[in-house]
Amino acid sequence: MNIDLRDKVVVVTGSSKGIGKELIKAFAKEGSQIVINYFQSEEAANQLYNQIIKHNKKCIRIKADVTNQADVDHLCSETISTFGRIDVLVNNAGICDDNLIQLMPEEQWRRVIDVNLTGTFLCCRAFSKIMIRQGFGSIINISSLKGQGGCEGQTNYSASKAGLIGFTKSLAKELGMYNISVNALCPGFIVTDLNRHNDEKRKIAMEKSLMSIDNSLHDLLNFILFLSSDRLLGVSGQVFNIDSRCK
Ligand code: NAP
Predict the structure, then answer these.
(1) Do residues 223 and 238 make contact, with C-beta atoms less than 8 angstroms apart?
(2) Catalytic residues
(3) Residue spans of alpha helices (H) in 84-154
(4) Please, what are the domains in the chain?
(5) What is the pLDDT of residues 3-13, one digit of tens each?
(6) Distance, CA 111 to ligand 1 centroid (Å)?
(7) How far does residue 86's CA lie from ligand 1's centre (Å)?
């Protein structure tokens, strides 16, 4: 089965590194028109941009802090002025900043909620305005298994990711009438800068896996490509776990 993503206009927030970067490369291979978004990692975003543009892909890179309304408006208006529309928005930008609750300053709580949850809200609000006018679009929110199962030391992160699940289901109900789908994906453990330092968590994740192979990044990328294609038009308001663990 062929999935045709040629010329689809795709915005991936937080795509200077990690999962977002791999997603940009995957959409580029499919011939999509791509918006790289970064905040702090300008050098990494430039490298990715140069790599993509070599193969004549239509690609732009935009610095925007997803927690900042003006930045998000800029991300949205630059996308539309360059490509004329938005087909797929992947809300991938995210951080974690772990601490036990007794040791967690309010700022540490707020920052994680702000980037992971409020950032997604701001991007969805801006881009869905365009999608409503178009009468089509697909929004994919990257949540986490931690949003369902929780994790000690990650009350802020788990709460933000659980919040994304309720947010996704509610937004899907608001936007369905405009042919806009909204889904959430919950990856398990994928080694990136977000968790590279945490060998113990990686070990535990692998021990809980039912599968002997770790294909989680590729599975996530392929799942997102499939969800972004016209092969799936009527799937919305769903939460997909991209993992092999049983609860
Ligand atoms: P990562 O390697 O640390 O990358 C995070 C990305 O988010 C970076 O490109 C970063 O851009 C961007 N970002 C952070 N704050 C931002 C802001 N305020 N505005 C715009 N961009 C911002 O993390 P990752 O592992 O790829 O995670 C990507 C997403 O998957 C996150 O939402 C994470 O919660 C989720 N997830 C990851 C795993 C995992 O095991 N890795 C599991 C489940 C869910 P700059 O560096 O340019 O600021």
Answers:
(1) no
(2) 157
(3) 106-113, 119-134, 146-149
(4) 9-242 (3.40.50.720)
(5) 999 999 999 99
(6) 13
(7) 21
> How buried is 213 (Cβ within 10 angstroms: 0-12 exposed, 13-18 middle, 19+ buried)?
exposed
pTM for this structure? 0.97
Structure tokens at 240: 């997909």
Ligand 1 atom 33: residue of nearest CA: 94
Token digits of residue 25: 């490369």
Q: How does pLDDT run across 123-144, given as a tens digit for each residue?
A: 999 999 999 999 999 999 999 9
| 16-60 per-position pLDDT tens digit | 999 999 999 999 999 999 999 999 999 999 999 999 999 877 999
Q: Residue 167's Cα: distance from chain center in Å?
A: 14
Measured CA to CA, the distance from residue 10 to residue 24 in angstroms comes to 9
Q: Is 1 exposed, middle or buried (0-12, 13-18, 19+ CB in 10 A)?
A: exposed
Ligand 1 site, residue 216, Cβ cutoff 6 A: no
Rounded CA gap, 31 and 7, in Å? 6
As a residue count, the chain comes to 247
What SS3 class is residue 11?
Answer: strand
